[in-house]
Design brief:
- The structure holds 2 protein chains of 2 kinds.
- The model of chain A has no long low-confidence stretch (mean pLDDT 91).
- In chain A, the strands form 2 sheets. In chain A, strands 2, 4, 5, 8, 9 and 10 form a 6-stranded mixed β-sheet that branches. A 4-stranded antiparallel β-sheet of chain A has the order 1-3-7-6, with no helix packed on it.
- Chain A is mainly β.
- Helices cover 0% and strands 46% of the residues of chain A.
- Chain B contains no helices and 12 strands.
- In chain B, strands 2, 5, 6, 10, 11 and 12 form a 6-stranded mixed β-sheet that branches. A 4-stranded antiparallel β-sheet of chain B has the order 3-9-8-7, with no helix packed on it.
- The chains are: A mainly beta, B mainly beta.
- The interface between A and B is medium-sized, with 27 and 26 residues.
């Protein structure tokens, strides 16, 4: 498809298990973002990838969270030893990353993570 | 650090009435400002953005927002609400264009 896709759409896991969330950005977009949207909260920035540069990890809430982007395209967000407070919708967005100001972010539908 | 405050987590308006959703930001530098909309069971989509130039920005679906530096505000308005405008609206700010800070959102209900 032409948009940002994320999988799975829903994930239910048990406390202490590891989970992997996948994001397929729009083809050709060099910038990719991960956000977390908790109930009643705004979008919380997690991590930002731009081309081949080192990612901006300043938003990751703990060392249980990590993300990688292989080949400058697909990204995987991994949460180790999940906790109940990790339950949220995880959103991915991509943009063209052109210089000269912020380019429009295109968001995926999100992955709803529930930790029991 | 940047931050965004959206006053009113829930706003209700009658169909045909003015829509006003408030957004105030804090930024140490001239910011980039955005409004996103999230319709039920859909992803976020950009309504409009301010980067430079004209402070009154027009977006999709008849929405507009005005950047007021003196008030550090970027309120979203629409002259006449339509039932299809019912959604969650998010204001966002960025200073570098790399990291974005979002408000907690305002849920708009349109009453027939």
């Amino acid at each position: 498809g032409a948009g940002v896709s994320q999988s799975p759409s829903n994930k239910v896991t048990e406390k202490g298990k590891d989970v992997e969330l996948r994001c397929d950005p729009i083809s050709g977009h060099t910038a990719l973002y991960w956000y977390r949207q908790s109930l009643g909260q705004g979008l919380e920035f997690l991590i930002y990838f731009q081309g081949n540069s080192a990612p901006d990890k300043s938003g990751l809430p703990s060392d249980r969270f990590s993300a990688e982007r292989t080949g400058g395209s697909v990204s995987t967000l991994t949460i180790q030893r999940t906790q109940q407070e990790d339950s949220a919708v995880y959103l991915c967005a991509s943009s063209s990353g052109l210089a000269g100001g912020p380019s429009t972010q295109y968001f995926g539908p999100g992955t709803r993570l529930t930790v029991l | 650090a940047q931050s965004v405050t959206q006053l009113g987590s829930h706003v209700s308006v009658s169909e045909g009435a003015l829509v006003l959703l408030r957004c105030n930001y804090s930024s140490s530098v001239p910011p980039y400002l955005f409004w996103y909309v999230q319709y039920p069971n859909q992803g976020l989509q950009l309504l409009l953005k301010y980067t430079t130039g004209a402070t009154l920005v027009k977006g999709i679906n008849g929405f507009e927002a005005e950047f007021k530096k003196s008030e550090t505000s970027f309120h979203l308005t629409k002259p006449s609400a339509h039932m299809s405008d019912a959604a969650e609206y998010f204001c966002a700010v960025s200073d570098t264009g790399n990291q974005f800070y979002f408000g907690t959102g305002t849920s708009l209900t349109v009453i027939p």
